[in-house]
Backbone:
C-alpha cells in the first residue's frame, strides 16, 4: 500500500536516489538526451527542471545552489552557458519524455528524456501557411488555366510566324534561283549570238578576198 507516499522512491535509499538523479541530470545536460525508464524520467524531470530555471539568473549564489545538487564543474559551465541561453525565452517545460516501448527481460516501460529546445524535429515556430478557401482555390485554378491557355496561344502564334517566315524565305530563294538561271541563259544566248556574227563576218571577209583575187587574176 502507498499510504503517505508523496513521490516514487525508485526502490532506493535517499542517498542512493539523490546520487542517481544527480548523475542522470549531469548526463542529460551534457548529451541533451538520455534513455531510461519512465519512472526514472518522471523523477528526473522534477529534479532537473528547477535547476534549469535557477540557471537563468547567472549569479554566484545560484551557481552554488546548483553545484550543491550536481557536483560537476563542467556541467555547471554548460548549464549556465549554452543551456541557459537556449531556454531563456521558455517558462518551464524544459524536458520531453518520448516513450519507446517495453524492455526485454523485466518488461519495464522505456523512454527518451530530452531537452526540448535541442530537438529540431518538434519545433513549432515554423511559419504558418495561410488557410485556403474554396473560392480562392477555384480562382487560383481558373487563373492557372487561363495562363496555360494564353501560353499555348502565344506558342501557336510564334509557330505560325516561324512557318510564314520560312515560307517567305523559301519563296525568295526560289525567285533568286530563277533569276540567276535566267541571267545565265541570257548570257549564254548573247555569247552564242556574238560567236555567230563573228563567224559570219569572217566568212564575208573571206568571200570578198576571194572575189578580189579572182578579179586580179582575170585582168
Residues:
Amino acid at each position: 500500500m502507498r499510504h503517505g507516499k508523496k513521490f516514487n522512491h525508485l526502490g532506493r535509499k535517499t542517498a542512493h536516489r539523490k546520487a542517481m538523479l544527480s548523475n542522470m541530470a549531469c548526463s542529460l545536460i551534457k548529451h541533451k538526451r538520455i534513455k531510461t525508464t519512465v519512472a526514472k524520467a518522471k523523477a528526473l524531470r522534477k529534479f532537473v527542471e528547477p535547476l534549469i530555471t535557477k540557471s537563468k539568473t547567472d549569479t554566484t549564489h545560484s551557481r552554488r545552489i546548483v553545484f550543491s545538487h550536481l557536483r560537476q564543474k563542467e556541467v555547471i559551465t554548460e548549464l549556465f552557458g549554452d543551456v541557459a541561453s537556449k531556454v531563456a525565452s521558455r517558462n518551464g517545460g524544459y524536458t520531453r519524455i518520448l516513450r519507446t516501448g517495453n524492455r526485454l527481460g523485466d518488461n519495464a516501460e522505456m523512454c527518451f528524456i530530452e531537452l526540448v529546445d535541442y530537438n529540431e524535429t518538434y519545433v513549432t515556430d515554423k511559419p504558418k501557411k495561410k488557410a485556403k478557401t474554396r473560392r480562392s482555390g477555384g480562382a487560383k485554378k481558373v487563373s492557372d488555366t487561363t495562363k496555360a491557355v494564353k501560353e499555348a496561344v502565344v506558342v501557336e502564334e510564334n509557330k505560325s510566324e516561324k512557318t510564314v517566315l520560312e515560307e517567305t524565305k523559301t519563296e525568295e530563294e526560289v525567285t533568286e534561283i530563277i533569276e540567276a538561271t535566267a541571267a545565265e541563259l541570257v548570257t549564254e544566248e548573247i555569247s552564242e549570238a556574238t560567236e555567230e556574227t563573228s563567224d559570219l563576218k569572217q566568212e564575208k571577209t573571206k568571200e570578198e578576198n576571194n572575189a578580189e583575187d579572182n578579179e586580179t587574176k582575170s585582168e
About this structure: The longest helix spans residues 134-218. The radius of gyration is 52 Å. Strands lie at 33-37, 95-102, 109-115. The chain has a mean pLDDT of 83.
